[in-house]
Amino acid sequence: MKKYSTAVDMWSVGCIMAELLAKKPLFNGKTGADQIDKIFKTLGTQTETIWPGFSELPGPKAQFVKQPYYLLQKRFPAASFTGPPVLSELGFDLLNKLSYDPETRITVDDTLNRDWFREVPLPKSQDFMPTIPPQLGTGMFKEH
């Protein structure tokens, strides 16, 4: 049985957060197997300890090189002199809560209550989005 929940969306949120910070794709696989390999190289190879029930998931079981668990912090060092992105401890703590196991993954409400959203620099107001009034008679919505 396939199961979809907001935990799937939260996985995507974590990937997008990491990509915005790194200014490049987090897992840039060319095939499905390459994608999984890249995920495992960053987050570690799946085990029953990390994700209870993982071995019972449907689908083919491929053999991957065993990778140490959770090397994401290497992608976002605490300090840098060379210019790569830097993520604060609070930001890394939030990213770390976006775990493999959807049952233990952080929820939307818990995410929004994390201290990372209150540290300097503070997020900008939602008022920064421009509003453009529709104009009849121009563009693809031209009246005939």
Automatic annotation (TrEMBL):
One of its GO terms (molecular function) is ATP binding. PROSITE patterns: PROTEIN_KINASE_DOM. It holds the Pfam family Pkinase. The keyword Nucleotide-binding applies. Keywords: ATP-binding, Nucleotide-binding. The keyword tRNA-binding does not apply. Residues 1-117 form the Protein kinase domain. One of its GO terms (biological process) is regulation of mitotic cell cycle. InterPro entries: CDK (IPR050108), Kinase-like_dom_sf (IPR011009), Prot_kinase_dom (IPR000719). GO terms for cellular component: nucleus. Gene3D superfamilies: Transferase(Phosphotransferase) domain 1 (1.10.510.10). PANTHER family: CELL DIVISION PROTEIN KINASE, CYCLIN-DEPENDENT KINASE G1. This is Protein kinase domain-containing protein. It comes from Dipteronia dyeriana. The lineage of its organism: Eukaryota, Viridiplantae, Streptophyta, Embryophyta, Tracheophyta.
